[in-house]
Amino acid sequence: MHAAEKKVRAFVRVKPTAHFAQDVIKFGPDNKSIDIYIKKDAKKGVVNNKQTDWSFKLDGVLHNTSQELTYETVAKKLVSEALTGYNGTIMCYGQTGAGKTYTMTGATAEYKHRGIIPRAVQQVFKAIACSVDSFITVRISYLEIYNETLCDLLSTMTSSGASDVQMAVVDCPQGVYVKGLSIHSVSGEEDALNLLFEGETNRVIAEHSLNKNSSRSHCIFTIYIESRVRVLSDIRCINSKINLIDLAGSERLSKTGSEGRVLKEAAYINRSLSFLEQIIIALADPKREHIPFRQSKLTHVLKDSLGGKCNTVLVANICGEALHVEETLSSLRFATRMKWITTEPVVNVTYDSEGTVKTLEKEISLLKQELAMHDSLVNRSLVTYGPLTDVQVAEIKSQIHEYLQGNIDEIDITNFRQVQEVFRQFKLIVRQQEGEVETRLRSKYVLIDKNDFATIAAAQKLGIVDVDHHLLKRQDVETKPTPVSPNPDEKKKKFGTSSEQFKKEGTKNFFSGKDLAAHLPSKSQVIIPNKNLDVKEKARNEDTAKNDAQPSKPVSEEISQRPSSPPSRAVAFEQFKEECGSEINRIFKENKSILLARRKRSSTVARRINIIKQEMEDIKKALEAQRQERSQQGEYVDEKGRLIIDEKEFLLIMKLKDLKEEYRCSYAELQDLKAEIQYCQHLVDRCRNKLISEFEIWYSESFLIPTHVQNALKPSGNIRPGMIPINRVMCLKGMQRVLKLIIDRFFLSY
């Protein structure tokens, strides 16, 4: 069940101090805003555009508040929702010595100074004591991240073998968990607090210039809550967890002057907090597709807490002294960015597999009882609904054979399992008959695969199958072709619709593909009788000899068979594209479509390159403005002298880098597309020229050149002077186009 979207709540807690800078830090009347004012530095001259005032709007400002009021404001509602199935996270962020650990854990000297963790544990177990319908179990874990190393603070409470497991952050469909982290069941508040105190003693702390007991690591105290309804019929299990995070404090090394181990720890802390801030910026950007959670162990562990489906609350701890105003501004900026993040809390409900099985078994039993009651009411007491026995299967098989032989008109069906068995038996019988038919066909015929084009072409050449892969009858193979009618109308019909006429005649003389497929064992095969191969070859040789022996017809008779007037070239061209030139026309269309697609893609890529170039120019101008502003305000460097830039400039640099990479990839793609377009254009031109030249030859041979002239123009023909009158050549429209062809063949003949 999804809840409405929620914004991350952010609060500011100000550390009490005797030197509170009232002229620098001011609170709003509603205790939800805080303003920072800094006086201008007179040393930088009259022209000084550096910002001197800031205003931050948050969910609450906690100044001079007790631990109890802090818990009521920050954590009580989140813990209550965790008891109903929502995950929750409370995080304390701020500079070293700002009171993060005090807010999260509290002080052990007095009971009223308890922090968020002890009070959350108390609230959870109070709710368990008041719960009547649910059975709730609680478990505890305590994780430390020290110098990018995962440490189990409760490893001393387990056996030695469990502490030797290598810890790692693992992603799974249910979320992120730490492999090797020990999780301890607790039965009461006292057991949970004992684990908390045990973990606190194992934390890494060190003396610092800002804090005598400074935490040098990030710590995550997690409370796991599992709730089950006491009713046995309810198999739901509600799981939730509360992450209570005490982050290590950030610091400016130039101020603190840390050395040695403390300096190394500070470097790790600052780097992980910097990565955390980058994650916050990325999550706040709705256009950002990838969130780099794996940059550090801290951000990876907090993946579900920050970008997941849970309630998240941030407490930014700040110092009220003017000396730390820069760190205060940094913490307030971080809190403001956290408020940009939107989460979608959901109730985590799972179902017990064992309970599900029991429930389904019970439902099946009730349904069987209901069926038995229904059968008894309609006098069907002998019906069973279990799996069929061998005897029942044999009886169904016998009834099917009797039904196919016509001995019975119906098959007795009493339940759905019998229906399934009847279909299965019919399927077996059909497969058996298909095998028998295929065996008989293979004994009499040669089976050719329809995808074997070479064999099919040979069969077409022998006249065994037609152009549509239809099998010819034996009498059509053995008889001579019928002579062409001398009627001019029939001759014109032959030239115009020869393929259609062939198909119409085939309905009388040939087996159609559908008729033949009904007798074939496979749709991908063509059946050719073995005897037809020899008969067709013999008939073809006889027909060739008879045709050679027949005298050629007079020219006048052939001219009389021509149409009175040839069709227009446009009509003839369309006919040519559908018949003789269909293959060339198909290839021409395919190449042309590929060419158009490549041109369209090239245009798109070119437009994208221009957009990228414009974006790069804009970013370069923005970076230049940022550099000028930084040079005017003063530059920050770390302990190694490296320049420190703000997040806005960093994002611009990263975006410029991504745009440059995208520009290189797009430019390379554009070059490849240009080469492909040039090649495709060449293919299209060749296909167009080929199509036109083949049409000219076909048009002249079909409608302009006499048949005896065509035979004479063949390489084996007998052409001689005077065979083609010059007046006949010049009067034939379009004859000049084939004149070169005639001359070429004439010289080849001699």
UniProtKB/TrEMBL annotation:
Residues 606-676 form a coiled coil. It is found in: Cytoplasm, Cytoskeleton, Flagellum axoneme. Pfam families: KIF9 (PF23735), Kinesin (PF00225). Residues 7-341 form the Kinesin motor domain. Residues 476-500, 528-569 are annotated as: Disordered. Keywords: ATP-binding, Cell projection, Cilium, Coiled coil, Cytoplasm, Cytoskeleton, Flagellum, Microtubule, Motor protein, Nucleotide-binding, Phosphoprotein. The keyword Secreted does not apply. GO terms for molecular function: ATP binding; microtubule binding; microtubule motor activity. GO terms for cellular component: microtubule. Interacts with HYDIN. This is Kinesin-like protein. The gene is KIF9.
